[in-house]
Write a structure and sequence with these properties.
Blueprint (H helix, E strand, L loop, with lengths): L11 E7 L8 E2 L3 E4 L11 E2 L6 E9 L2 E9 L6 E2 L2 E2 H8 L16 H4 L4 H16 L2
Antiparallel strand pairs: 1-3, 1-5, 2-4, 5-6, 7-8
């Protein structure tokens, strides 16, 4: 939110929220941010939680009777890779496990629990199962 004029002494507290129509599990941010006296804007941290998703999240900032909305596009974070293979797969192989690893960018950590809530996770799970079934 950019105020039209600089804040008076004491600053202004802006309320921050996710739009109710946005996915609620992808980002975390503070409930408020203070714009310092003499300033027209402030920054605040946004932590990406759902790192396996490619989604838009609408942020809402409210101050007095003004409400401003902005869209944040959350992109998937690639998994850690060692020598062209996922770090977890490397650890499992070093421990003597015979494994087949298929990376699907639509599947975040813990995707099995998400399949009933996300079409993309369900489809990614099906793709992985088909890939496992087709592997030697």
């Amino acid at each position: 939110m950019l105020l039209a004029a600089a804040c008076a002494a004491g600053g202004a507290t802006v309320t921050l929220a996710l739009d109710p129509g946005s996915p609620q599990c992808l980002v975390s941010m503070p409930p408020t941010v203070t714009i310092d006296a003499g300033k027209t804007s402030a920054t605040f941290p946004i932590v990406i939680i759902g790192q396996g998703f490619d989604e838009n999240v609408t942020l809402v900032a409210s101050y007095a009777s003004s409400v401003v909305r902005g869209t944040l596009h959350v992109l998937p974070t690639p998994p850690p890779v060692i020598g062209g293979r996922h770090a977890c797969a490397v650890k499992l192989a070093k421990a003597g496990n015979d494994l087949t690893y298929v990376h699907d960018p639509d599947l975040p950590h813990g995707f099995i629990q998400m399949t009933s809530h996300s079409r993309r996770c369900l489809e990614g799970t099906i793709r992985c199962l088909k890939a496992f079934a087709a592997s030697p």
